[in-house]
Amino acid sequence: MKTTYKDILLIMVGTILIAASIEFFVIPNKLGDGSTFGISLILYYLFQIPTSISTLLINIIFIAIAYKFVTKKTIINTTIGTIMISIFLKVVGYIPFSVDDMILGIVFGALLMGAGVALIFIADGSTGGTTLMAYLLNYTKGYSFSKSLFYMDSLIIFASIFAIGLYNTLYTLIFVYLCIKIVDVIVEGFNNKKALTIMSDKYEEIAEFFTHKFGSAATIFYGYGYYANKDKRIVYVVIKKKELLKVKKNVQEIDPNSFIVIHEVKEVAGGKFGFMNKKILNNARN
């Protein structure tokens, strides 16, 4: 899958929101963070190293580690995001605005940060750092993305005690937790999937539509219709939520007598919705 203008736009908006969160809310209240930003903030508080420079250098290291394991699109989008976040951290730093209030800093900083990270995640990119590692654990080990991110970020947050003190570190834990919850809410809202179970005598035409015309893989199960007292074929397919109306219309045009059951899907990996590098997945199967 190629990087699209929509992906670049999402990454751009996401990085702007992250940069605004850090410069307007996080740094003025001397909060920490996880991932690359947490490390960069520690370096800033201790040695006054600009976050725009340290974020870029640290992310390059993480990208070099992960490039063999994730798709080319994800690496490209993550690289784009890394460059953009460094640029916007520099640009936003010139804006004379800051909120020196801990509660407002935590709430609005988390809102902007969470929304920014979520938009980048939706574009198949990442902010680098532990976000990229959480991706890997999620798709290779099945670990929860949010929990993996929280545990790894917590290690960096506790290390920030030496730079911001105990109380600010405790506030930072609240800030990061809110960020992760916001990421989950937004990502699930954008990436909702639906599974369809379709019973129809024209199952071959329906499977043909999904596979060759719609671009989604269809699976055909063998079943038995008790009421009709005859064998049945059942088509099973997973689609994006936004595609549901179009799919139902086309299926009903193919067979007005078709019976469709729609299921909620929590998460999908592989195939059309894949994240991991195909070579890695093939090696894992062998």
Condensed summary:
With 286 residues, the protein is an alpha+beta fold. 63% of the residues lie in helices and 12% in strands. It folds into two domains: 5-190, no CATH class; 193-273, Alpha-Beta Plaits (2-Layer Sandwich).
How would you characterize this protein structure?
The chain is an alpha+beta fold and 286 residues long. It folds into two domains: 5-190, no CATH class; 193-273, Alpha-Beta Plaits (2-Layer Sandwich), CATH 3.30.70.120. Helices cover 63% and strands 12% of the residues. It contains eleven helices and four strands. It has helices at 5-26, 35-47, 51-66, 72-92, 102-122, 129-140, 145-159, 161-190, 203-214, 244-254, 278-285; strands at 193-199, 218-225, 230-240, 259-265. It has a four-stranded antiparallel sheet with strand order 2-3-1-4, covered by helices on one side. A hairpin with a 4-residue loop joins strand 2 and strand 3. The chain is elongated, with a radius of gyration of 23 Å.
